[in-house]
Amino acid sequence: MSTRWYPIYQRGNPQLRIFLPNFWMKLVRPEEKQPKNVVQFKVPTGMTNYDIENYLTKIYKIKVIKVESSIENGKLKRSIMNKYGPIIKEDDFRRAFVTMPRDQEFEFPDVCNTEESKKRNTEDEKSSKISQDMYKDYLKKQGDRPGLPGWFSF
Question: Entry's PANTHER family (predicted)?
């Protein structure tokens, strides 16, 4: 576990200490087209633009020109199991756009582009389609009786 607090001194030879931040940064594929030297991250709301810049320069040694960020609300979702279930809200997050120098470019790598992964994806899609159809049939049989267990049927 990482911590921002300085550890308590212990007697003895010099100790190796590693200080890691308590923050995380998630690299996000952009939804809209943007320049090659701009990278998009999702970060916690407690992180400031200055923290983002220091995180990238100190840990990853990336030269940062500018950081723009905004706080976005988490999505509201209804429970998957039934349409009358509780509404669940995801955590809020900060979306950060980091601009690097013009000579630096970032491109997402094509990690899963093999024939085997494509074949596996088509099989997964078929099985998920079958399970969705089965669930829809189950809901049709239940009719307007939300929340009743499956064993309590006709």
Answer: LARGE RIBOSOMAL SUBUNIT PROTEIN UL23M, RIBOSOMAL PROTEIN L23-RELATED
Instruction: Please state, in angstroms and rounded to a whole number, the distance separating the CA atoms of residues 126 and 121.
Output: 9
- The answer to pTM > 0.70 is no
Could you report the per-residue pLDDT of 27-66, keeping only the tens digit for each? 999 889 999 999 999 999 999 999 999 999 988 899 999 9
**β partners of residue 87:** 78
Residues in the chain: 154
| 66-72 β-sheet, strand order | 26-28, 38-43, 93-99, 66-72
DSSP letter string, 18-66: ----S---EEE--SS---TTEEEEEE-TT--HHHHHHHHHHHS----SE
Is there a contact between 101 and 138 (Cβ–Cβ < 8 Å)?
Answer: no
Residue 41 φ/ψ, nearest 5 degrees: -130, 155
**AA identity, residue 128:** S
Contact 42/95 with Cβ under 8 angstroms? yes
Q: Which SS3 state, helix, strand or coil, does residue 76 take?
A: strand
What are the tokens at 124? Answer: 């997964």
Contact 138, 144 (CB under 8 A): no
Rounded Cα gap, residues 32 and 110, in angstroms = 18
